[in-house]
Specification:
single chain, 626 residues, alpha/beta, eight-stranded parallel β-sheet, four-stranded antiparallel β-sheet, 26 helices, 18 strands, 47% helix
Length: 626
């Protein structure tokens, strides 16, 4: 479909569109015309993604001064879905209408999702993949491999990509993560670094929220994006939580023990460096006297994460004298870690603000806030000077440096909370000290200030007037649209009583009642016996789902359900959940039938389509309130 919207030619890849899609485009265009931010709510299932892509790419076509479209999603399946819609749109523009304007659209994800090296991609966690990649691509490893190639292993994909230099480019097109990996294997180039390089030339970029909101990542990936870019946060009903998590740090006893071991290892490496190459440490000291940032000593390339504080809050000056020498910095970190360990020895819940925490830290260890502010950058500089590549072994120490930098930088908008145990297992000591960000507007403020048009959209933003307050911005358009149903295709049922006529509810005072749990289970047993193919169940939280499933297992209800259908469960581990989803679909495809237990507002609830036989019935155990 090709039509005019207030003098804008819009290319829409389907024959028909919903009235709400037309209104959505109209409001979005008004926001782009005004060069301001907007807040748009349109129900899930009404084609929000293709509506956004159609309007913004058509706007780019008619207004070349508009920059890139930066589309932020929460999950990889959502990212793939956006890129598939983009492929359909470009194909429609080219084949149906003869509009053949070269466009480059690509997705960017972590090394774990993009690596094609046979050994590295088999590593378990994201951190271990990152660390293994650095071992093969670090500049000093590559320099030494020139003289002693037999002693150092390099990544052939990265080497071939580097050899091509400026010639390593992607031709115009739309590239999903799988397309990038296939292209990389065909050319022999690393798809991760190729995608990072091509961001500067792309018209449409699709990546995770963290690449825009988390200061550690955004300063590496999104720093060079121009002001004229249009930034879209899709499924943004949880954006405040993402902002808070980006500036929050949790430290447990195991983390601090790992940090202590890391300090000991670093101290050993410092002594070795003094004995074999003291000039390296002397050069670093001179750089620190004049200031890290001015000398370019803080790594800005692909090898390291950036400072956890927001860009405007980073001190661009010389590092304090008490942590310039490597051995003094190690003593500083050891005192800080020991103080954190002492603070973990609590018997009851404690909460305080950063100012109070810093006062106690100064009294106990003579550590001031200014030294803490340089903690992360100083550690990065030292690890680069010592040429450390197995960074996953130092993960605990990096978290401590994160904690120190943030608590030394921000006096307001944060709280330090110390808990002696996990509320789920009060009898098991598991102390944790949390630096909690309380103001979600802190992380998103640089985005609103840098880009002229930011679109926050989701299927559920109610109450929509709340978001400008919690994110502290002023949208030029706020609109909530309703869904138009042309036929009765849904049969909603609200259940208030079980088969024994006893009330059922997920309200806090009733949710653990054995009678309620049993009635919920019997409902699912009955449904699994009569509903074909797939049933999707949503619980209000992971904690509630864990409790219910455990009690159903004790009551024998899970056994009864599995006589009718297989059961798969969403977990907080992305790999496990992806595997469970794949097997759920296979069970539905082969006719065995399956039930998928998920969490409302979780990863599966956003971006995963349970269409056709994958979702014959949906059961909501309670109503999720934010």
């Amino acid at each position: 479909m090709k039509f005019n919207l207030e003098d804008l030619t819009v290319y829409f890849p389907y024959e028909r569109m919903y009235p709400e899609q037309y209104t959505y485009m109209l409001e979005l265009k008004h926001s782009l015309d005004a060069k301001g931010h907007c807040l748009l709510e349109m129900p899930t299932g009404t084609g929000k993604t293709v509506t956004l892509l159609s309007l913004i790419t058509s706007y780019q076509l008619q207004h070349p001064e508009v920059g890139k479209l930066v589309y932020c999603t929460r999950t990889v399946p959502e990212m793939e879905k956006v890129l598939e819609e983009m492929q359909n749109l470009i194909r429609f523009r080219k084949e149906e209408l003869g509009v053949d304007v070269p466009i480059l659209a690509l997705g960017l994800s972590s090394r774990k999702n993009m690596c094609i090296h046979e050994v590295v991609k088999e590593e378990g966690s994201r951190e271990s993949v990152d660390a293994r990649c650095r071992k093969l691509t670090a500049s000093w490893v590559r320099e030494r491999a020139v003289d002693n190639p037999q002693d150092f292993e390099l990544c052939s994909f990265y080497e071939q990509y580097e050899q091509k230099g400026a010639e390593a480019i992607l031709p115009p097109g739309v590239y999903t993560l799988e397309d990038l990996k296939n292209f990389g294997e065909e050319k022999g180039w690393c798809p991760y670094f190729l995608a990072r390089h091509m961001i500067s030339y792309a018209n449409v970029i699709v990546y995770n929220y963290q690449y825009m909101l988390d200061p550690k990542v955004s300063q590496l990936v999104s720093k060079e994006l121009e002001r004229e870019c249009v930034v879209v946060f899709d499924e943004a009903h949880n954006i405040d939580n993402v902002c808070i998590e980006a500036l929050s740090v949790n430290l447990r006893q195991q983390t601090l023990d790992n940090a202590s071991r890391s300090i000991t290892r670093l101290r050993t490496k410092i002594d070795e460096a003094k004995a074999t190459d003291a000039q390296r440490l002397a050069d670093e000291y001179r750089r620190l006297v004049t200031g890290l940032a001015q000398q370019g000593a803080i790594p800005r390339g692909e090898e390291w994460l950036s400072n956890p504080a927001l860009p405007r809050d980073i001190l661009e000056e010389a590092v304090p004298g008490n942590i310039r020498r490597a051995e003094h910095f190690m003593a500083f970190l050891r005192r800080f870690v020991e103080h954190l360990k002492d603070r973990l020895n609590v018997q009851q819940f404690e909460s305080e603000n950063p100012t109070s925490f810093l006062d106690k830290l100064k009294d106990a260890c003579q550590i001031d806030s200014k030294s803490l502010r340089f903690c992360y950058d100083r550690l990065q500089s030292l690890m680069k000077t010592l040429e450390i590549i197995d960074t996953d072994d130092y993960y605990g120490l990096q978290l401590v440096a994160d904690f120190g930098t943030l608590v030394g930088t921000y006096a307001r908008g944060f709280a330090i909370i110390i808990e002696p145990y996990d509320e789920r297992l009060p009898s098991v000591p598991d102390p944790v000290i949390q630096l909690c960000c309380l103001d979600s507007s802190l992380a998103v403020r640089p985005v609103f200030e840098k880009f002229q048009s930011v679109v926050i959209t989701s299927g559920t933003l109610s109450p929509i007037d709340l978001y400008p307050k919690i994110l502290n911005f002023h949208p030029v358009v706020i609109q909530s649209l309703n869904m138009s149903l042309v036929r009765d295709c849904i049969c909603p049922v609200i259940l208030t009583k079980g088969a024994d006529q006893m009330p059922v509810s997920s309200a806090f005072e009733m949710r653990n009642d054995p009678g309620v749990v049993r009635n919920y289970g019997k409902l699912l047993v009955d449904l699994s016996a009569v509903v074909p193919d797939g049933i999707v169940c949503f619980f209000v939280s992971y904690l509630y789902m864990d409790k219910i499933v455990s009690q159903w297992n004790d009551m024998g209800i899970l056994r009864d359900i599995m006589q009718n259908k297989l059961v798969f469960i969403e977990t907080q581990d992305v790999v496990e959940t992806t595997l469970a989803l794949d097997n759920y679909r296979r069970a539905c495809d082969c006719g065995r039938g399956a039930i998928f237990f998920s969490v409302a507002r979780g990863k599966v609830a956003e971006g995963i389509d349970f269409d056709r036989h994958y979702g014959r019935c949906v059961v909501m155990f309670g109503v999720p309130y934010q």
